[in-house]
Specification:
Layout lengths: L1 H14 L17 E4 L3 E2 L6 H14 L5 E3 L7 E17 L5 E16 L5 E15 L10 H5 L4 H6 L2 H30 L2
Parallel strand pairs: 1-3, 1-4, 2-4
Antiparallel strand pairs: 4-5, 5-6
Helix pairs in contact: 2-5
């Protein structure tokens, strides 16, 4: 009876489209390896294309499929893209015009093609992400998740200027956006769109 229930549950889960995210089941069977081309950077943010490539390599490093290869001619598919927008804006200020919260936004287009035939496996996927972060000392709550994630100790904050804290928060938000972009791309590969 238990075996029958387990088989029935497995069948229903498979029929509903559930699968392991790292399985690469959303890709055609013959796409086992992928080469990550350097993304085009259409923004003024210097080095963003390198950050995207590094984040993608790290995210896909543990994936069973597709396996990232270092040489173009070893790949079954090629992942490429364009970073269309990266910018920050203030979203909350205090009475003294200090920025309490800011927002970073990243827009990228991603395309996946077969290497040999150049057949498009993903027609232009657009990914839009945003990250809100602390802009000044007054916006940081020691002990909060954001505070701890940015690796600042409570004693450090007293010694730093608001400008240094804001820059540190901005760079940490940028890194989180790059990691999230890579995660979204991996998930879309697994889901097949």
């Amino acid at each position: 009876m238990r075996l029958a229930l387990a088989l029935c549950a497995a069948f229903l889960a498979g029929a509903c489209g559930y699968r392991f995210v790292d399985s690469g089941e959303g890709l055609p069977d013959d796409v086992r390896t992928v080469y990550i081309e350097r993304f085009l950077n259409r923004t003024r943010a210097v080095g963003l294309e390198h950050g995207v490539g590094l984040a993608l390599r790290r995210e896909l490093a543990g994936a069973e499929r597709p396996r990232v290869v270092d040489r173009f001619d070893e790949a079954d598919a090629v992942l490429s893209g364009v970073i269309r927008h990266y910018g920050t804006r203030n979203v909350a200020v205090d009475g003294a015009d200090r920025v309490l919260r800011a927002e970073a936004r990243l827009d990228a287009e991603v395309i996946l093609r077969r290497r040999r035939s150049r057949e498009v496996l993903w027609p232009r996927q657009v990914v839009r992400l945003r990250e809100v972060y602390a802009g000044a000392r007054g916006a940081m709550v020691p002990g909060s998740g954001e505070f701890l994630r940015d690796a600042l100790d409570p004693g450090d904050v007293a010694r730093l200027s608001d400008a240094v804290i804001a820059e540190s928060s901005r760079m940490a938000a940028r890194e989180r956006l790059l990691r999230r972009l890579a995660r979204v791309i991996r998930q879309r590969m697994a889901e097949g769109f």
